[in-house]
Amino acid sequence: MKHFTSVNDVKNAREFVAAAGELKKDTYAFKHLGKNKVLGLIFMNPSLRTRLSTQRAAMNLGLDVMVMNFTGEGWALETREGVIMDGDKPEHIKEAAAVIGQYCDIIGLRSFPGLEDRDRDYDEELLKFFMDHSGKPVISLESATLHPLQSLADMITIEEFKKTRRPKVVLTWAPHPKALPQSVPNSFLEWARKMDYDLTIAHPPGYELHERFTGGLEGVNDQYSAFEAADFIYVKNWSSYRDYGKILSTDRNWMVSLEKLRNTNDARIMHCLPVRRNMVIADDVLDSDASLVIEEAGNRIYAAQIVLKEILT
Ligand code: SN0
Q1: Measured in angstroms, how far is the CA atom of residue 236 from the centroid of ligand 1?
Q2: Is the CB of 180 within 6 Å of ligand 1?
Q3: For all residues of the chain together, what is the average pLDDT?
């Protein structure tokens, strides 16, 4: 594996998820692999899980880690080609990426979308700059359109807790006060389709995701019917792809509460975190045994670790 930016960088998703599960049983088996190698983690916005789980995964493999957060630290980066840099951005991404490549053997990048210009976001400019100019393997720590390490951790979690061979997995939209990226749902669908789960998508009208990720599976607008017999419910807010970056619904009835789980197959609830309590998911779910959010966050270590191991070998 050269870079890790989506499920398409993995030869066989099912085998890869299983391999991560094996790694979890023997965490330090490959401690020698990272000797004298450095992982650089570059963030363009805040992070808790991604930063600490990837750092822990690196430590488990004997890698050294350097972390830099460009919000607050570092120069403001110019990303446009051919501009006269007479504004407030002192450094071009081309030099920055190349310089970081001099210091690191593997680079993790959290880029995030601007949610204003759809073509620009979906072009993954920043990620491409790092892949083209750093000369080093690049791992996406959530790009403008995908969050593959999160999805990999989600698949590890579903495999760990599933009670049937092919569980019913529902991705549901939930309300949120801010416009959020489509990265987590896009990526979740890409991975869940490769895992061949029985998938359902639920969202209010206008929140359809791009066909490249849904694979043509149409979303339903009725959350109650979507939840029927569900084994896993993956809760996430996202802003509209069609009316790009816009909030089209603030309907609080889409929040997931315990009472909505009645017709499910004792569904377990998942969310990538951070989750806004009583807005996206109610306390009664998050504080119950139905919630898998902590186990899911724990598996972020093994998702990052299997990816780093694959790049190192
Ligand atoms: C991220 C997202 O992509 O939606 C989750 C992964 C880091 N969530 C947020 O940015 C939430 C921000 C908020 O204000 O709740």
Answers
A1: 9
A2: yes
A3: 97
184 C-alpha vs ligand 1 centroid, how far in Å? 9
pLDDT tens readout for residues 111-121: 989 999 999 99
Q: How far is CA 6 from CA 83, 119, 144, 146, 246, in A?
A: 31, 18, 12, 7, 25
Using H for helix, E for strand and C for coil, what is the string for the chain? CCCECCHHHCCCHHHHHHHHHHHHHCCCCCCCCCCCCEEEEEECCCCCHHHHHHHHHHHHCCCEEEEEECCCCCCCEECCCCCCCCCCCCEEHHHHHHHHHHHCCEEEEECCCCCCCHHHHHCCHHHHHHHHHCCCCEEECCCCCCCHHHHHHHHHHHHHHCCCCCCEEEEEECCCCCCCCCHHHHHHHHHHHHCCCEEEEECCCCCCCCHHHHCCCCCECCHHHHHCCCCEEEEECCCCCCCCCCCCCCCHHHCECHHHHCCCCCCEEECCCCCCECCCECHHHHCCCCECHHHHHHCHHHHHHHHHHHHHC
End-to-end CA distance of the chain: 9
Is the Cβ atom of 239 under 6 angstroms away from ligand 1? Answer: no
What pLDDT, in 10s, does the model give residues 193-221?
A: 999 999 999 999 999 999 999 999 999 99
State pTM to two decimals: 0.97
Query: What are the structural domains, with CATH classification, of the chain?
Result: 7-146+300-312 (3.40.50.1370), 150-298 (3.40.50.1370)
Any atom of ligand 1 within 6 Å of the Cβ of 3: no
CA of 214 to the centre of ligand 1 (A): 21
The backbone torsions φ and ψ at residue 175, rounded to the nearest 5 degrees and listed phi first, read -70, 155
Residue that is written with structure tokens 């998942």 in the block: 270
Residue type, 180: L
